[in-house]
Design a protein that fits this description.
It is a single chain. The N terminus is likely disordered. It contains five helices and five strands. 37% of the residues are buried. Helices cover 30% and strands 15% of the residues. α3 crosses α4. It has a five-stranded mixed sheet with strand order 2-1-5-3-4, with helices on both faces. The protein folds into two domains: 76 residues, Ubiquitin-like (UB roll), CATH 3.10.20.30; 65 residues, [2Fe-2S]-binding domain (DNA polymerase, domain 1), CATH 1.10.150.120. It has 165 residues and is of the alpha+beta class. β1 and β2 form a beta hairpin.
């Protein structure tokens, strides 16, 4: 049950939007946050609920290709729009997206909690600037906190894709 729902009698709103390329419609509480709809209603648990204050960035998803903190976004703000989660990057045959594979090959994740958000931020960057420099990469990743690494392998994983490796 979403935070804020005290009983089953609270009114709901119909939310229709694309999630990972598929049109999705469901009833949500007016105060539902996108992170909760994705995780609880749609089972897309790659989106992490960290601080719930927009500080850690672990809840990052792409909304119409732009990174957003889904813990701050009312779910209804996604109506009629396209949301991409980390699950949406994997191809139907199970092949990982190039960024996911690069993170794996580079050993760029340790606990993995921040990894989906890092990859989605990197994807948004590379979609706009296919050959970013290190500073651009670090800036794009700066909204996601990682407590396990020094970011070196994360940055290298993105650089590898930018350099066609």
């Amino acid at each position: 049950m979403h935070p804020g729902l005290k009983d089953g009698n609270m009114s709901t709103l119909k939310l229709s939007f694309k999630v990972n390329g598929k049109l999705t419609s469901l009833a949500v509480a007016p105060n539902a946050l996108l992170v909760d709809v994705l995780r609880e209603d749609l089972g897309l648990t790659g989106t992490k609920a960290g601080c719930r204050e927009g500080e850690c960035g672990a809840c990052t998803v792409l909304l119409d290709g732009e990174p957003v903190n889904s813990c701050l976004l009312p779910a209804m703000k996604a109506a009629g729009r396209e949301v991409t989660t980390i699950e949406g990057l994997v191809q139907e045959d199970g092949t990982l997206h190039a960024l996911q594979q690069s993170f794996t090959d580079q050993g760029a994740s340790q606990c993995g909690f921040c990894t989906p958000a890092m990859i989605l931020n990197a994807k948004a960057l590379l979609d706009k600037a296919p050959h970013p420099d290190e500073g651009q990469i670090r800036q794009a990743l700066s909204g996601v906190l990682c407590r396990c690494t020094g970011y070196r392998k994360i940055v290298q994983a993105v650089q590898n894709i930018a350099q066609g490796k």
